[in-house]
Amino acid sequence: MRWLVGWSSTAAGVAGIGSAGATGYDGETLHPVGSQLLWGDPDPLWAVGDWRPDEVRVVRADADNRIAVLGICGASDEELRRGLYTARGGALRHLTTWPGSYTAVVQVGRRITVCGDLAGARPVFHTPWAGGTAYATAALPLADLIEANLDFGHLAALLAAPDVPAALRDTTPYDGVRRVPPGHALVLRAGAREIAGYEPVASLAVAAPPADPDHAVDAVRDALVEAVRTRLSAPRHVPGLDPGPVPGMGPAERRARRGMPVPGIGADLSGGPASGTLALLAAGLPGRPGTLLGHGTGAGERLLAVTFNDLAVGGREAELERAGALAANPRLHHVVVTGAEETLPYADLDGPLTDEPGPSLITAARHRARLAAGSADHFTGHGARQVLDAHPARLADLLMDRKRRHLVRPVAALAKADGSVMVPARVYGAARRLARLPYRTGMEVLAERLMRRRFDEPKGAVGASLAALTWARPGPAARWLTGEALAEVSVLLQAEAVRSGTGAQRPGDYRARAALARHAADLRVLEQAAEIRSQRLHAPFLDNQVVRACRALPEALRVQPGARAAILRTVLEGAGVTDLPPGWGAPSHASSAAAARAGLRVSADPLLDLFATPLLADAGLVEARVIRKALRAAAAGDPLPLDGLADLVSLELWLHRLLSRRGTCWTGTPARARAVPSGIQPRRGALASGA
């Protein structure tokens, strides 16, 4: 893991505050483990972890004005200096418009500004501490700093309504540690904190001016090409020298066994449009996208394309064929990684502690097997679906803008899939109801559903689309929560509905942003859980400028069937790539649910042991016997929501790893205790089973 951490004190020179602490300047008594100090008192900032030299940049105008950028940023030092001067007047948005994925921290006198990103893949956290405010890009260091206990209300909301921002609010799994929402910045002035948004808010009263589809797609192409080019322009990194030969193993096998990625740049090549677009862009742009001369293949110009072939679960043969056809490009070096039962979900539940829980914990070993054969800088297509596809609730947005004719093609596609002539009327009626339903009423409806335990599961594509035409829905794990846990989330939603009034977003845009934030948070968990030493995963679709360009796409274009593949095909054509295999961009008919069900069947016994005395039951969120019964039923093939079981298992795993950890993120005097110092105390008296 890598993060930055610092704090803003109420006054300079207070004992125990800053890098100096009680022993003088630079003789700190409290500092993060494994850190490098970027600047000192009275408001110090550290970079913690295995940052590369080019990933940490500090530009100073004078002693009181400076900017730190951590991550991949395409701005030059002069551009950073100009950005610093502009930020002195209070402007923030320009700090987030450089290509790449990074966190910017600006210090102007005693005012500190920390900018989060639009997607939520690079979040910012904060907590009150020692009369001021501590901030970081990871929640666990702040939890250690204040010795925080678990926030059981947040954990309940993670299971009951994980896609509803009103339920999660700005909380984290640690009590007292808060999250800065995506699209916002944390502004600190001598310890006092303020959350400021840097993106313009669309009006509900006036429809947005019509956007030209061709210009919007061109903007997506330009942003995506610039995101890839920024990473290609960064210095190359050699993970380390090969210690030597091993009998019966080639160089690639030795690297994978020792957890060493291949030098240079590579990409996923699953056969889908997102990963294929990035691989072809990276291989086709000028420069040296491939491996270093003298390392790996020795070609110096070829990009390493990695395809995962699941031998335990079939159904992706067409995608594998398309990946092979794409890999025929002479600028690509294709590697196929096979996986059997040992790479199924739930098969390997050992792994590192992540900053927060996420459903990807159960598939981390599966991804690690693929990434171990990847490069030191590895492109992934994560986020493309969330930023390009249209959430079904966007149909209501079109009705609000009186663009009914654009509903014809998506509704016709649903009718064709279902085979019923009643589909258009049902979909149109649901979209019309949502367009007229206030945000506050939508939250109250969800609160009522949780209180009354109404978890009817939609069937088929039409059922899923109709169910998505709401402001909010219960999470797939909500059906297994105790009655009082659901009541706690229900009361919270009712209070948030009253506090927020009518809301300020369109339902489709609101649901799309929530889905993007959820995916970005889980991708962050995946990066930490499946981390390969000296490897960097790059998700250009989650860069600020790419997200902005995708949000500017007309909704009428988004909702059309096959829109994502068509947009990415146009992006590739604009970059000079036209020779795509037949069927490129076709939706996959194989579902990850088949792999999840196979993994449940193979790993049923270890999972039942995990829930013999679950920590979630001690927290009062579930009953152990209910979860064990659900696991047995799912392993036997019963049609249960597998995503909900993944949420439960991953959260239980994360709690076990958190409570079994040793040490802390801080060192120095006085000695610091870790987060959740007393463990989970059974809450049966305060939060009964209710089931």
Offer a few descriptive terms.
691 residues; alpha+beta; 6-stranded antiparallel β-sheet; disordered C terminus; globular
Description:
- With 691 residues, this protein is of the alpha+beta class.
- 39% of the residues lie in helices and 15% in strands.
- The strands form four sheets. It has a six-stranded antiparallel sheet, with helices on one face.
- Strand 7 (100-108) and strand 8 (111-115) form a beta hairpin.
- Helix 7 runs parallel beside helix 20 (563-574) and helix 11 (394-400) crosses helix 13.
- It is globular.
- The two termini are 39 Å apart.
Short recap of the structure:
Helix content is 39%, strand content 15%.
The Rg value, from CA coordinates, equals 25 Å
The computed structural class is alpha+beta
Assess the beta-strand content as a share of residues.
15-25%
Fraction of helical residues? 25-40%
Average pLDDT metric: 87
Number of strands: 19
Specify the overall morphology.
globular
| Major beta sheet summary | 6 strands, antiparallel
Widest β-sheet, arrangement of strands: 3-4-1-10-9-11
Unreliable spans:
13-27, 290-299, 685-691
Instruction: Note the total helix count.
Output: 25
Distance between the termini: 39 Å
